[in-house]
Amino acid sequence: MFNLSFFFKANEKRRSAPFDQLQISHQVQEISRPLYLTMSCFAALGLLFAIICLILNIVYRNRK
Q: What φ, ψ does residue 53 adopt, rounded to 5°?
């Protein structure tokens, strides 16, 4: 047989009982200002493009 005791050594170091429920930690994450501005510009351009396409579809709806 194989000696599998080295797999269980990590649990032996813990002296306290395991947690009964999921531990949730709140952490604030930040992104850089240039990345935020770039993504905001892309989102604004996407909205503008969608509005232009909608207007063109309304104006030219009767043409085939």
A: -65, -40
